[in-house]
Write a structure and sequence with these properties.
This protein is mainly β and about 120 residues long. The protein has a domain of about 80 residues: Roll (PH-domain like). About 10% of the residues lie in helices and about 40% in strands. The protein is built from 1 helix and 9 strands. The radius of gyration is 16 Å and the shape is globular. The termini are far apart. The chain binds zinc ion. Zinc ion binds next to loops.
């Protein structure tokens, strides 16, 4: 029982697996469903048109269907050391960068963009 008198039932399954979207116990080392290594994930952002996973080496974009929670199955993986010319859009929140000579623009929710900026600073 905690200080409010509530009884804690079980464990919180709030560690979302970036690969399959299943909730795992907070201290899980790998996903109980797809066995993805969850310790590699530094940050996981759920956005409107994709989910974004950040590991120490990569930014991985899991594309989602238009207006849907469902994923398309398309996954774009960007190696952080190959990402160049990073810009952050304003006033519309966007993450813009160059990758293999192409310009990539990822529209992100403002709160997600702020988390991403913070994480990228700690990685560089
Ligand atoms: Zn999984």
């Amino acid at each position: 029982m905690d200080k409010d008198g509530d009884v804690e039932i079980g464990i919180d399954y709030d560690l979302i697996c970036p690969e399959c979207g299943v909730g795992n116990p907070r201290d899980a080392k790998e996903c109980t469903i797809c066995e993805k290594n969850l310790e590699e994930t530094i940050l996981f952002l759920e956005d409107d048109s994709f989910d974004l996973e950040i590991t120490k080496d990569c930014i991985i974009e899991y594309r989602k269907k238009f207006w849907g929670e469902e994923r398309t199955g398309k996954v774009n993986k960007y190696h952080i050391r190959k990402i160049k010319n990073i810009e952050f859009g304003s006033p519309i929140s966007r993450f813009i960068f160059e990758y293999n000579g192409a310009r990539k623009v990822l529209p992100l929710k403002k709160e997600n963009l702020e988390k991403l900026i913070h994480i990228l600073k700690t990685l560089k």
